[in-house]
Specification:
458 residues; binds copper (II) ion; 6-stranded mixed sheet; binds CU-O-CU linkage; globular; mainly beta
Length: 458
């Protein structure tokens, strides 16, 4: 009998020239190709379609613990890389341009080999000139299926993004790199999309149990999503299951790069139920749940089960080996006087000339020296002090951590964490794979203008 894997190998071998067949059949893991290219979207009637940067897939679906070889082919006019946000990959596969790999030139390919350790909701995005490439849309959601299927009636994606459009209804490229925005809240757009659509409609049946995977793919905008008044639980955060699903009864705030998986029990009443983004105080309609009749189904009355745990290293607060402070400074109204940039102590005028305005421990952007060096397996605590007037979304590559933030439910895992202006939060994690791992603000303009450092795991 021909199993699925043999079949995949067989069918891909058929596409190759004869000389490649032996090579293609030797690999004992699945290989797939992703093309990065431009994409046209007809968002506005009577205007030319908008040109975005994208991949040729809507979403990447992987299976927990199954190794895949992902050939990324760059058909864009600029070099790029892909970073697998939230995935615990080998450091050489982390996709950080200039740190873990060279950028993939136009026309060239790079093979990422990944064995997903954790089931959940992740994403892949450009990590080269990220402030430009993410604003152009170069990302896709990445779903890692649980080794044992978690059963729901529908598994839906809600990738929310924020774009800046000019009068011709094209991406506003001219304003990319606007330094005043970098010193404030970053680049904010003027339209919101869900799954790259202006009018996403989810077709559901009364009484269905839905898993909804929410991802904020914006450069810098923090969003607050008001879902319809159904029974809703938080199932997972940043790809990691909550020990117990948590009832959600208010709009959900989500920072750039963060993800939430929800369980939604659709009501028995038929009709259209709006989803709004409400962070500005106004209700912005971003999507709709269209509920149709369902003869058989009853309303669920039992709470959803937790997802199976992922094999994350255990946190032990009593065994902390490295205690580090991270003093976050700068930005508009921050009163930054000087900072070290590329080995030189610069005053604020000199920093601004270099498009730098934020600092971690008085260092703007990446230095030759890491923030800390730890051995794999050692416990680390970083006390992050947001001494700026702005919220930040701190992201650690290749690791998940716990935090003592009062902004979030207690004792959940994160790979990205909002820290409000003036707040201090401790994060705790165990050093994972060896290599160089970035720690940066996921408001990408803040990252570009100073909010980036790295840790070294040996
Ligand atoms: Cu999602 Cu360094 O990024
Ligand atoms: Cu920031």
């Amino acid at each position: 009998m021909i199993n699925r894997r043999t079949f995949l190998k067989f069918s891909s071998a058929c596409l190759l020239s004869l000389s490649n067949i032996s090579h293609a059949t030797v690999a004992d893991y699945r290989t797939l190709t992703i093309k990065l290219r431009t994409e046209s979207r007809h968002w506005f009637a009577n205007y030319l379609p908008i040109q975005l940067w994208a991949s040729d897939i809507k979403a990447l679906n992987l299976q927990q613990f199954e190794t895949v070889q992902i050939e990324v082919n760059n058909q864009l006019p600029n070099p790029t890389t892909l970073h697998w946000h939230g995935m615990r990959v080998k450091n050489t596969m982390d996709g950080v341009s200039g740190m873990t790999q060279l950028p993939i030139a136009t026309g060239a390919s790079f093979s990422y080999q990944i064995t997903p350790q954790d089931a959940g909701t992740f994403w892949a995005h450009a990590h080269h000139n990220t402030f430009e490439q993410l604003a152009r849309g170069l990302y896709f959601p990445l779903i890692v299926r649980e080794a044992k299927e978690y059963i729901v009636d529908q598994d839906l994606l809600m990738v929310i993004d924020d774009w800046r459009i000019n009068e011709e209804r094209q991406l506003d490229i001219a304003s990319l790199g606007n330094f005043s925005e970098w010193a404030h809240g970053g680049r904010n757009g003027n339209i919101l999309t869900v799954n790259r659509q202006l009018n996403q409609v989810y077709q559901c049946k009364a009484g269905q149990r839905i898993r909804l995977r929410l991802l904020n793919a914006a450069n810098s905008r923090i969003m607050t999503v008001a879902l319809p008044n159904f029974a809703i639980w938080i199932l997972a955060k940043d790809g990691q299951p909550l020990a117990e699903p948590l009832k959600l009864d208010k709009p959900m705030t989500i920072g750039p790069g963060e993800r939430y998986d929800f369980i939604i029990d659709i009501n028995m009443s038929v009709g259209k139920f709006p989803i709004h983004e409400v962070s500005s105080g106004k209700n912005i309609l971003i999507a709709m749940i269209d509920v149709s009749a369902n003869e058989q189904q009853q309303q669920n009355t039992h709470a959803p089960a937790a997802l199976p745990e992922n094999p994350l290293p255990k946190i032990d607060p009593n065994k902390i080996k490295h205690r580090i402070k991270l003093d976050m400074q700068g930005g508009a109204m921050g009163g930054l006087k000087k900072a070290n940039y590329q080995g030189n102590l610069l005053n604020v005028q000199e920093l601004v000339k270099n498009k730098q305005i934020w600092s971690f421990n008085a260092i703007a952007n990446l230095a030759d020296e890491p923030l800390l060096t730890a051995k794999s397996g050692e416990m680390i605590e970083i006390e992050m002090m947001n001494n700026t007037r702005w919220p930040h979304a701190m992201h650690l590559h290749g690791h998940h951590f716990k935090a003592d933030s009062s902004f979030y439910p207690k004792n959940i895992w994160h790979d990205t964490l909002l820290i409000l202006a003036g707040e201090t939060t401790k994060i705790m994690f165990r050093a994972g794979e060896t290599g160089k791992w970035l720690l940066h603000c996921h408001m990408i303009e803040h990252q570009a203008s100073g909010m980036a450092t790295w840790i070294e795991v040996t």
